[in-house]
Specification:
alpha+beta, 35% strand, 24% helix, 272 residues, single chain, 3-stranded antiparallel β-sheet, elongated
Length: 272
Amino acid sequence: MSRMMNQAAVTMNQIQNKLDVIGNNIANNNTTGYKNRQVEFSSLLSQQINNLNTPENAEGRLTPDGIRVGAGAGLGAIHLNQLQGSLIETDRTLDAALTEENTFFQVNRVENGQEETVYTRDGSFFLSPQEGGVLALTTSDGHPVIGQGGPIEIQDGFDAVEFNDQGQLIVTRGDEQAAEAELAIVEAVRPSALEAEGDNFFSVTAEADIEEIMQVYNGEGSVIHAQALEQSNVDLSQAMTDMTAAQRLYQFNSRSISMGDQMLGLVNTIRS
């Protein structure tokens, strides 16, 4: 196969990965707290061809001697766009939207018998009954939400419950109100080190030092917008534009392979 066809085939494979990322962004346009993924490309290995044998030919040349022939483009990195999404009022007392970028709720997830802490921007919480008349604050999938003293649990028999702007769970019992729990909100000081997982969660790899990536949020002022949810920060019009451009680029590289095949056919015809 010719060099041109190799370059096009390699690049097509990487463009398909970009289309997958864009498609995932579009599919999660209405997912609460979803963060847009952005793709960066980089050149793969290149070969230096020295085609200047006479030193006089290089006089006045501004670029390095020779020709650098690449092997196509590769997926360099997938970055998370941590910009704040728009907030929508829900009037639901257990909904909470984070108002600062790079801040997360902590969730205790048990998977395959392994317990781990994961992070999310989705603040649509629920109260799930437990033994002994206790209610646990959980995500929509039933994963316990972590507070300052561990998983948040309150005793049943209250009249009302709501969050304040500091992340405290205010419980009303009769004529008395008290903060019976507080969300353990953390801040990602190195958000690029977070790994996106399913169910709108982020995690820190076991090999990484979690203290260098996550820390307790110590910001001043309100950190929670109560009775609201953060929407996805996906720009749908931009995502559709990027998808169209990627599809055109995919078609261009596909056409390059077809043209290369036709040229080889012509060469073989001439030789025969």
